[in-house]
């Protein structure tokens, strides 16, 4: 016999904090979360047990944060991860910092010890809101279950609007079991958070004047163009004013890589012609980019002849690293549409002819011989799967993946640009594949980076996530080795990791497909086999071990002082 | 260059450490910090006095504005504002020096709020210069303890920050 109490409960919508959390995730449209259980989140996992939300069990919490990040970058939606208190929460830290540096919208939920024990050095207690203060856009410690829905609503709003970024919500265990009257707010009211979307008309007018006057303009785009979904507007704008476009690492794919106006990446391992163009430009239009030190080289000699227009949604980025002439704060897409309306068609034929000569004379190149070159492998992956999503770890392979794969669409190149997190690629690839299952997803890895997250082979096998791991195995922590070769007289201190593991056996031990490739002619068949297998696959490419990333601007030099490194070989 | 920042924030736990973190990260020493609730009980006002490079400060102010709990940041110019600090000074005194100290306190329109056979506590309110001057004059008698509230400031006239 049902009593009136239960009817009453249905009528009044009473539920526990854990149930409310799941309810809020539904309402935010979350279909997948990445996580790892533990004592403080038992009530939440109990609710997940029969919920429609897909939970991907990773094998280390850091991977949960990276996977949420990869999911967000691939889909444009907000990624969600979940961990328990204490070590579970602190293991998220690197993933959260990675997302923060590259402005990726994720919401991280952490369990916390019961409210009554907070501050007591309780078992598995860590002050995670304190720890993540400088690496989150905002964070919350839930103190009253009645506030939980409002906090979750705000968190998703803050993470995904303005300049996106990670938000953390720390939930004490007692909050998840306490019952309350559920109410989900439809709107967010935050008096202190109102991002500017519409650019200032006066500033836009000034920018239009400068664009009109310029004879050697360059458009310099960053990850902001991708996160604001401005790629179409960017293309229309660049074509209207006929200005060449260069991209940062996180901006790859914002502008089609096969377009005649495209210059490739700029900066330390950018193309020579992108760097030369910046140095000779009389106008730079920076969009959603932040003049990072890897881009500018020596700041004092960056773009010495150029006036700079800087379009960014974050006012704190304006004149942070470099003084700009015309800042326009707002949404890149909105501002680009205004600029398209207000500017006139331009030609710049002399300027473009000069750039085309540079493109011919100093294109990206590597020495082709009978050895297995890492650059060749990237080219082959591009040939076999040109619409793939490429995710990378950090190091030499990351640079080759940026140089030798032609990205034509946004959200197809996913990499840790700001923090430079080794071990990011594999879990981020998991997130990308879960979010975009119809796409081929490659984790381009180094043998060093891959070993920082290799335990996730268990995740891809048990959850059947067919990502392809392409290890460019050179037996070194290659980028550090390259610097040791160039700047430390070849003293390879702690960078040789040859023969540390048999990657094919490792893959097989987890139940994944493992393929070893040692010759050029084996490359394409291996890639095609991996794609066709529809299984998680690891390809161990044994590559030329002392290949360098070229060209290169030495640290502290101006970006036109860019060197060819393989000439000596 | 010295700056006085008026920072209006949500009256919530954790806000102070968010604000302080932005200064400490950049090696900025906070000269003084005063926090209290405003006429609106949901808003607190922080008055922060800092010294340092203007460019770095500009960056700190922008970062402060980015904090979700920060409602508004204003750099208060000293010529357009009234600022005060309250200081309690415990100074050594005996029969021989008490009269002289009282005389000094009178000149400064300060007040004596505690007397014992060996000490006096003096309360003074004023701007920085006035307080410094009093401190200097009292120092020869032996200052045993000193506590200050930190500077608070309001802009002159009807307008609000």
From TrEMBL, chain B:
Stored CDD domains: ACT_AHAS (cd04878)
Gene3D superfamilies named in the record: 3.30.70.260, ACT-like. Chain A, domain 2 (3.30.70.1150)
Pfam families named among the record's database cross-references: ACT_AHAS_ss, ALS_ss_C
ACT domain: residues covered: 4-78
Pathway membership, UniProt: Amino-acid biosynthesis; L-valine biosynthesis; L-valine from pyruvate: step 1/4; Amino-acid biosynthesis; L-isoleucine biosynthesis; L-isoleucine from 2-oxobutanoate: step 1/4
GO biological process per UniProt: isoleucine biosynthetic process; L-valine biosynthetic process
EC assignment: 2.2.1.6
Catalyzed reaction equations: 2 pyruvate + H(+) = (2S)-2-acetolactate + CO2
Domain of life: Archaea
InterPro entries, per database record: Acetalactate_synth_ssu, Acetolactate_synth/TF_NikR_C, Acetolactate_synth_ssu_C, ACT-like_dom_sf, ACT_dom, AHAS_ACT, AHAS_small-like_ACT
Keyword Plastid assigned: no
Keywords attached to this entry: Amino-acid biosynthesis, Branched-chain amino acid biosynthesis, Transferase
Keyword Amino-acid biosynthesis: yes
Family recorded in the similarity comment: Belongs to the acetolactate synthase small subunit family.
Record NCBIfam families: acolac_sm, PRK11895.1
Subunit structure and binding partners: Dimer of large and small chains.
Function of the protein: Catalyzes the conversion of 2 pyruvate molecules into acetolactate in the first common step of the biosynthetic pathway of the branched-amino acids such as leucine, isoleucine, and valine.
The protein's name in its UniProt record: Acetolactate synthase small subunit
Biological source species: Methanosalsum natronophilum
Lineage of producing organism: Archaea, Methanobacteriati, Methanobacteriota, Stenosarchaea group, Methanomicrobia
């Amino acid at each position: 016999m049902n009593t009136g109490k239960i009817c009453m409960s249905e009528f009044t919508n009473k539920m526990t904090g854990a149930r409310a959390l799941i309810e809020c995730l539904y309402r935010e449209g979350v279909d997948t979360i990445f996580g790892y259980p533990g004592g403080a989140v038992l009530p939440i996992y109990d609710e997940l047990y029969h919920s429609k939300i897909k939970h991907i069990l990773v094998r280390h919490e850091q991977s949960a944060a990276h996977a949420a990040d990869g999911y967000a970058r691939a889909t444009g939606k907000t990624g969600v991860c979940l961990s328990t208190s204490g070590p579970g929460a602190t293991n998220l830290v690197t993933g959260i910092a990675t997302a923060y540096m590259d402005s990726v919208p994720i919401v991280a939920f952490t369990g916390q010890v019961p409210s009554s024990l907070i501050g007591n050095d309780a078992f598995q207690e860590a002050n995670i809101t304190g720890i993540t203060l400088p690496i989150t856009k905002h964070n919350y410690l839930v103190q009253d279950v009645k506030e939980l829905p409002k906090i979750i609503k705000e968190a998703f709003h803050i993470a995904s609007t303005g300049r996106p970024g990670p938000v953390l919500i720390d939930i004490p265990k007692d909050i998840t079991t306490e019952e309350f009257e559920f109410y989900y707010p439809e709107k967010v009211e935050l008096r202190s958070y109102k991002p500017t979307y519409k650019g200032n008309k006066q500033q836009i007018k000034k920018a239009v004047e400068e664009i009109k006057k310029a004879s050697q303009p360059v458009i310099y785009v960053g990850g902001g163009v991708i996160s604001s979904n401005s790629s179409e507007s960017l293309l229309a704008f660049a074509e209207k004013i006929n200005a060449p476009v260069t991209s940062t690492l996180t901006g790859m794919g914002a502008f089609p890589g096969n377009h005649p106006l495209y210059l490739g990446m700029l900066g330390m391992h950018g193309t020579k012609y992108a760097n030369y163009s910046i140095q000779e430009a009389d106008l730079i239009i920076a969009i959603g980019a932040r003049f990072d030190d890897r881009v500018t080289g020596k700041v004092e000699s960056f773009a010495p002849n150029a006036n700079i227009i800087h379009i960014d949604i974050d006012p704190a980025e304006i004149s942070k690293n470099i003084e700009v002439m015309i800042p326009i704060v707002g949404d890149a897409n909105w501002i680009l549409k205004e600029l398209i309306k207000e500017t006139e068609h331009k030609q710049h034929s002399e300027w473009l002819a000069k750039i085309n000569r540079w493109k011919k004379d100093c294109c990206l190149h590597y020495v082709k011989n009978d050895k297995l070159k890492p650059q060749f492998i990237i080219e082959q992956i591009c040939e076999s799967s040109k619409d793939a999503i490429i995710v990378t770890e950090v190091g030499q392979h990351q640079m080759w993946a940026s140089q030798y794969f032609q990205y034509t669409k946004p959200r197809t190149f996913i990499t840790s640009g700001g923090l430079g997190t080794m071990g990011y690629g594999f879990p981020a690839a998991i997130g990308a594949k879960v979010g975009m299952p119809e796409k081929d997803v490659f984790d381009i890895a180094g043998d060093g980076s891959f070993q920082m997250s290799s335990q996730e082979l268990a995740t891809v096998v048990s959850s059947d996530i067919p990502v392809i791991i392409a290890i460019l195995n050179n037996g070194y922590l290659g980028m550090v080795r390259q610097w040791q070769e160039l700047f430390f007289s070849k003293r390879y201190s702690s960078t040789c990791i040859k023969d540390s593991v048999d990657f094919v056996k490792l893959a097989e031990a987890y139940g994944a497909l493992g393929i070893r490739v040692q010759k050029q002619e084996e490359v394409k068949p291996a890639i095609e086999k991996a794609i066709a297998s529809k299984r998680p696959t690891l390809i161990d490419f044994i590559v030329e071990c002392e290949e360098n990333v070229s060209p290169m601007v030495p640290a502290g030099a101006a970006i036109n002082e860019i060197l060819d490194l393989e000439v000596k070989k | 260059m010295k700056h006085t920042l008026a920072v209006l924030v949500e009256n919530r736990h954790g806000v102070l450490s968010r604000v302080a973190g932005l200064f400490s990260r950049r090696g900025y020493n906070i000269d003084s910090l005063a926090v209290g609730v405003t006429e609106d009980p949901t808003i607190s006002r922080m008055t922060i006095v800092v010294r340092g490079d203007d460019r770095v400060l500009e960056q700190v102010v922008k970062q402060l504005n980015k904090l979700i709990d920060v409602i508004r940041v204003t750099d208060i110019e000293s010529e357009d504002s009234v600022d005060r600090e309250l200081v309690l000074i415990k100074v050594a005194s005996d029969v021989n020096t008490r009269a002289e100290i009282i005389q000094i306190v009178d000149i400064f329109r300060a007040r004596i709020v505690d007397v014992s056979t060996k000490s006096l506590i003096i309360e003074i309110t004023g701007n920085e210069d006035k307080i410094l001057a009093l401190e200097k004059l009292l120092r020869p008698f032996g200052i045993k303890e000193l506590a200050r509230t930190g500077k608070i400031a309001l802009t002159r006239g009807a307008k609000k920050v």
